[in-house]
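Tokenised fold entry reproduced for absentees:

. . .
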Amino acid sequence: MKLLIIAPEQNPIPPQVGGSVEYCIAQIAKRISDEHQVTVISVHRNGLPRKSVNGNTTIYRVSGDGSSQRYMNNVIQKVKGRRYDMIQIDNRPSFVRAVRKAFPGTLIAVFMHSMTFVSKPMTTKRRANHNFHYADLIVANSESLQMSLTKRFPEHLSKIRYVHLGVDTKKFYPDKKGRLRAFHFLFAGRLIPRKGIPILLKAYKIARRTVPSMRLSIAGGALKQSYKNELMRKVRKLNIPVTFAGNLSHDRMPAFYRSGHCLICPSQKHEAFGLVNVEAMACGLPVIASKIGGIPEIVEVGRNGLLVKMYRKPTAFASCMVNLAKDSALWNQLSVQARKDAKKRFSWRRTARSLIEIYEEYL
């Protein structure tokens, strides 16, 4: 199969820092190219060549200058006239119409990573629905996202499927040597309101009344520096010891996970999948997370972590934090199973295989 993957206009492939969608593209393309010919096209950034070839994977990087329209024009110019069996557009339904015009007879799949780009303020329901008409297939990264897309766009029900994302279990693995003696909670993700960090900080304050030695570290970049400053002011006001590790590259994330005992994911809005959860689990970390979106497809209560139903209440998270920090037998049980589940259920090779099976079915 000849597969073309079109990345969003924001980050290059591979991403230098951040860029979870682009990171997923790079990991999936790497596994698919074992048996198929893959072409990836992304935005160009300084320090990366315009073209990279690695085995059966070719990456082209075109100029975008911050404009999705300009980027899309350059993408079409680069690949128009070539033949592909399938074209995958990641997380940008707005690109489909232009791609369909350039490739009228080629199957087109839109791989959705969230509801962001089919909702306001990014677009309207009517416009997103219209864009989907030009696609042959819509792939979601979780069953929860599949259900959300189906509910919002029922006329496309027959072409909406899902595959779970994965984790590189050879890169993300347990190592207890780097952990602090004190129970160490971690947060990893963008520093934005929907991630629920203020809830976590209040929960941590409450939990420390019972287990004063526990620690908390936060890794992630802020879209707005003012929001990070607001979080730091809240930390000072609550008088709690919190370490802000900054925006870590993907290469540095395994060491960050291995420094802790448990990942906290206090999302306050729909989380389609939650890549950080499977990464932490692969490193032997149980996960305490909001019972929302696709998270319960990954985190199972009493098996590899704990789910918080009342996720808007800091006391609910605090209770789980205390229970885990005080019960070493429970922590060890969840830790061992978290690693097993990550290896068995969430490998990138499994993701790639499931995706190719869907594509071959359509072909």
In short: The chain has a mean pLDDT of 96. The radius of gyration is 21 Å. Residues 184-346 form a domain with the Rossmann fold fold (CATH 3.40.50.2000).
